[in-house]
Design a protein that fits this description.
heterodimer, A: about 350 residues, mainly alpha, two-stranded antiparallel sheet, 12 helices, about 65% helix, about 5% strand, B: Alpha-Beta Plaits, three-stranded antiparallel β-sheet, 5 helices
Amino acid sequence: MPLVDATIIYDLIKIGGYLAVVLSICAYAVLAERRISAFIQDRLGPNRVGLPIWFRRDGTAVSLGNRWAIGQPLVDFLKFIFKEDVVPGHVNKLYYVLAPCITMIPALLVIAVIPFGPEVNGIKLVIADLNVGILWVFAIASLGVYGIVIAGWASNSKYPFLGGIRSSAQMISYEISMGLSVIPVIMHLGGFTTNGLSLSELIRFQVENAWLIVYPWMWLPFLVYLISAFAETNRLPFDLPESETELVAGYHTEYSSMKFALFFLAEYSNMVTQSALMVTMFFGGWSFPGVPSATTSIGWGFVAVGIFLAKVVAFLFLYIWVRWTLPRFRYDQLMHLGWKVLLPLALANILIVAGALAAWD
Amino acid sequence: MAIAIQRKRLSFWERLYLPAILGGLALTFRHLFRRKRTMQYPEEKWTMPPGYRGAPTLVKDEDGHERCVACQLCEFVCPPRAITIVPEEYPENAKWGKIEKKPREFDIDMIRCIYCGLCEEVCPEQAIFLRKDYSITGYSREEMVHHKDKLYELGGVMPGLVKKWEKK
């Protein structure tokens, strides 16, 4: 037996590539957010910083893509690195430092079970094809809220505290309808799956039948999931934990420098994760009519990954687009929507889909 | 007494909110492609309206003769005391000898200047004018003091002024 199994090397490559892609998508999502928000408000947004490719002897740089501010994420990153990391005296140090990590790690962990391409030469384009895929997603994704709650508590001052409270209340009211709106998706897998609740089984189902969004009875679950996903990622109209206009900066008021950047990054990687999940569950993941589901050609592999990324980017655009359209919900309106509208709706969905599936058979 | 505001009763369709949300999304999507209002400052600049009070400057008339007679009225009227004038005498037999005085040094400290325009208003010789230059910058306090030659450079020649010192 060789000392290092080939699959481990493939796994390491996949993990490295995945980290690079997700983090750069996050970085450029920030840029996209700034550009799109500017466009929606009839402004131009950042359009100065290009990627430097060559430095002239007099210190000026030749750079690419100035008009589109291609280099902006790099500059923002450098700014975060060089900023002073202020730790206020009144915080609980241990949890204060722990909180950004707790927010960031689940955001990155969840995406590990999401397949981003078909099987190429017998290598599955997914980091961990767990047979409890969907459960894993829900178990880990809700951990991210702890980071926010702990940040709010450890900061030991009023605005972060209010943000933390709001965050926990929000999580309780949305997690349930989110979980319930996924049950119709799982019901489609009944009698089909050979590998439990694995997400690649879900995509195989959609390749062999049709994308789940095609079935009219899946529209309502998708809508409920979409709304809950906005709440889960703390994006407007549900950004109550942060709500800059009332709580200064909400749960990360006391954070600065790279710790703040971690919260920022976590928000965007949560968006990427939720987008990828919605793409996987309702829009057929990497599949597209005409793209083979198992192939030996690396070219087709790249095409499939490209399709997956394109779908994710479309969802990211939706996130940003909605943020610059809708105002923030009031606290009680949020509770009302979560408990009295979405929860009954999600429960009704299950019955509707069960009926529809029974009639279909 | 509290006033009960009559709210419009919303229909079921309106209470769904989704049509309104989609309408909002359509509106913002249209704005994505609208003409942008941003003025890209260093490349594009405002044209200043007439009467704009920018940096104060000294002017010469068409003959290239400096207007200032060093009467020091502007120095006295200047509220933040930004102007410092050191006068000198005209040589007795010079062409403009009957004016008697001219400024040897004329400094305006642009850190102090408040662009009020009183110097222009008080000047009996039409020698000092507020021009359209705004963005006056420098790396040191010394650089921010406009000396006489800098003031004439900014002011340039202003035609059509009253020439009261010409020989009748």
